Amino acid sequence: DTAVSQTPKYLVTQMGNDKSIKCEQNLGHDTMYWYKQDSKKFLKIMFSYNNKELIINETVPNRFSPKSPDKAHLNLHINSLELGDSAVYFCASSPTGTSGGNEQFFGPGTRLTVL
Amino acid sequence: RKEVEQDPGPFNVPEGATVAFNCTYSNSASQSFFWYRQDCRKEPKLLMSVYSSGNEDGRFTAQLNRASQYISLLIRDSKLSDSATYLCVVNVYSSASKIIFGSGTRLSIRP
């Protein structure tokens, strides 16, 4: 049983395209996150949602738009893709959000390559 | 200065050795601390939380020094399967919560 799942696992696309990555968790967690891990392996938080509400929005270009239709899903839409968007994007979830210091469970990642 | 700093390594040690990693953080409002493990081309997974009194889980021992703002991870009797990147993670609580990952320390265990 997959706890946090992401689709697609690999995404290769041309500059300027618009693409979406989907994330679902079946753990019943209240909080979900998107992270970007670049080629230097540095993992940086992009967004966090708690019960479908945005609670963390780091300095991310507004070409990136998260959407949470319900607390089990947090999708990431990216407009006008750029070369620098190439990275691995991880979705994660945790039970009660970061204030509780709870463990985060990560999805397997989506490897995005922009040509 | 980065908010969370780790020695990137790689640490290359023989099986059975003891290895220690340190991590320093700059924000004194940091309140929760963790070590995560990330295998090559895989997602990060929680290894252990770090408590003020220090905590141990089998061969792994984590320590927190709030005065000096550093966290350590000690691995005893290292196994080949310990080869991975170890990520130091800090939760900072001020006006809003913030999660900060260190860039990771690569560990390679050789037979």
Derived from helix and strand composition plus strand pairing, the structural class of chain B reads: mainly beta
| Nearest-integer average pLDDT of chain A | 90
Spans of chain B with pLDDT under 50 lasting ≥5 residues?
Answer: none
Output the radius of gyration of chain B.
14 Å
Average pLDDT over all residues of chain B: 91
Task: Give the uncertain stretches of chain A in residue-range form.
Answer: none
Which overall shape of chain A is indicated by the principal axes computed on the Cα atoms? Answer: globular
Order of helices and strands of chain B: EEEEEEEEEEE
Query: How many helices of chain B?
Result: 0
N-to-C span of chain A: 34 Å
Biggest sheet of chain A, open or closed, and with what strands and sense? Answer: 7 strands, mixed
The residue fraction in helices of chain B comes out at under 10%
For the biggest sheet of chain B, the summary is: 6 strands, mixed
What topology does this entry show?
The complex is a heterodimer of chains A (115) and B (111).
Chain A: E1 4-7, E2 10-13, E3 19-25, E4 31-37, E5 43-50, E6 53-57, E7 64-70, E8 73-78, E9 87-94, E10 105-106, E11 110-114
Parallel strand pairs in A: 2-11
Antiparallel strand pairs in A: 1-3, 3-8, 4-5, 4-9, 5-6, 7-8, 9-10, 9-11
Chain B: E1 4-6, E2 11-14, E3 19-25, E4 30-38, E5 44-50, E6 55-57, E7 60-65, E8 70-75, E9 84-93, E10 97-101, E11 105-110
Parallel strand pairs in B: 2-11
Antiparallel strand pairs in B: 1-3, 3-8, 4-5, 4-9, 6-7, 7-8, 9-10, 9-11
Describe the protein's architecture and organization.
- The complex is a heterodimer of chains A (115) and B (111).
- By secondary structure, chain A is mainly beta.
- Chain A is 0% helix and 55% strand.
- Chain A contains no helices and eleven strands.
- Chain A is globular.
- In chain A, 36% of the residues are buried.
- In chain B, the strands form two sheets. In chain B, strands 2, 4, 5, 9, 10 and 11 form a six-stranded mixed sheet that branches. Chain B has a five-stranded antiparallel sheet with strand order 1-3-8-7-6, with no helix packed on it.
- The mean pLDDT of chain B is 91.
- Chain A binds chain B through residues 33, 35, 40-45, 48, 55-56, 90, 97-99, 101, 103-104, 106-109, and chain B through 31-32, 34, 42-46, 49, 85, 87, 91, 93, 96-101, 103-104.
